[in-house]
Amino acid sequence: MSVGQVYPELYQQQLEHKTNEIIGQIHARGLVFPSPKIFESKPSHYRMRAEFRVWHEQNDSFYIMFDPNTKEKVRIDQFPVGSLRINELMTSLRQYFLANKQLRHKLYQVEFLTTSTNEALVTMIYHKVLDEDWIEHARPLATQLNIKLIGRSRKQKILLSDNWVEESFHVAGRDYHYRQVENTFTQPNAGVCVEMLNWAYTQANECTGDLLELYCGNGNFTLPLAARFPKVLATEISKNSIKTANENALQNNINNVSFFKASSEEFSSAWLKKEARLHQKMNLNDYKLETLFVDPPRAGLDPYTLELARNFKHIIYISCNPQTLIDNIANLSDTFVVSTFALFDQFPYTHHMECGVLLTRR
């Protein structure tokens, strides 16, 4: 398939293929999963963020991506994978910098972050020092395109406004509002993200006690799940994400969540060793932690976190890598059964598929 293109007529076929592959991997390991509930993506304009190199040829400059197989550059004038707002901005931004020497000169890359409510943050990355002259030409650009704009160069970051956009997701009858900050992780497919949030919220119906969440990011899952539990303890390794998660909880009037900076491995190791420092810092004696929520990176759960998981009655596990999810569940299968199983097509027309399972103690 061509880089950056979509094939709506093939969407169902590719979805069925990915689904069958994952089910086959599960069966090959001798594991028992219920039939999955499948959540589809829009077949086009589903991705809320994108980045492009800028290629300069004589009097022209244009966006490119690189073919992952051939490594050849591919000119990108429209990007149907990306949101409608990204496509609109690609054209208008390019027209603007083509006509403006100061903004075009040594422009290396452009990054777009958009929301389902049409907010947009654009980062323009340069191979030159950005000075007052750049700022003078960039401000009218931000105003004309109605965007938040950041200029970056080596050891340089110029904010012309905020470095975040605000996204809104409707979960279980309520709107949740999130600051999504430049250069921090956010779910790329907003439509599927809403489905994931509602699915996780529903699974929490079966769960008890207080919630421990590892890899909480900016509070994407934390905020709606907080409505299902008396108290939530959430950890994340990124200092910036913890800051944003606290801000997101505050603006959504959620006050039963405590966020702490710690990696999953660090937290789990300290918990298993019963380190007094951890218990005091996080007031662990104040919690009745019976439910665990994890959304780990592609590597899956580390050995310490797997061991920690055995102490819970319920685990809601979101995975961006079916293979490591299967490996982790095989490890836990003597303690837990898979009660529900879901597939989320975050990345249409690729081999990637997001999974969700509810594990219940035997």
UniProtKB/TrEMBL annotation:
InterPro entries: MeTrfase_TrmA_AS, MeTrfase_TrmA_CS, SAM-dependent_MTases_sf, TrmA_MeTrfase, U5_MeTrfase_fam. The active site is at C320, E354. GO terms for molecular function: rRNA binding; tRNA (uracil(54)-C5)-methyltransferase activity, S-adenosyl methionine-dependent; tRNA binding. GO terms for biological process: tRNA methylation. Gene3D superfamilies: 2.40.50.1070, Vaccinia Virus protein VP39 (3.40.50.150). It comes from the Bacteria. Its EC number is 2.1.1.35. One of its GO terms (cellular component) is cytosol. It catalyses: uridine(341) in tmRNA + S-adenosyl-L-methionine = 5-methyluridine(341) in tmRNA + S-adenosyl-L-homocysteine + H(+); uridine(54) in tRNA + S-adenosyl-L-methionine = 5-methyluridine(54) in tRNA + S-adenosyl-L-homocysteine + H(+). CDD domains: AdoMet_MTases. It is an enzyme of class 2 (transferase). Keywords: Methyltransferase, S-adenosyl-L-methionine, Transferase, tRNA processing. S-adenosyl-L-methionine binds at Q187, Y215, N220, E236, D295. Belongs to the class I-like SAM-binding methyltransferase superfamily. RNA M5U methyltransferase family. TrmA subfamily. Dual-specificity methyltransferase that catalyzes the formation of 5-methyluridine at position 54 (m5U54) in all tRNAs, and that of position 341 (m5U341) in tmRNA (transfer-mRNA). PANTHER family: TRNA/TMRNA (URACIL-C(5))-METHYLTRANSFERASE, TRNA_TMRNA (URACIL-C(5))-METHYLTRANSFERASE. NCBIfam families: trmA_only. This is tRNA/tmRNA (uracil-C(5))-methyltransferase. It comes from Gynuella sunshinyii YC6258. The lineage of its organism: Bacteria, Pseudomonadati, Pseudomonadota, Gammaproteobacteria, Oceanospirillales. The gene is trmA.
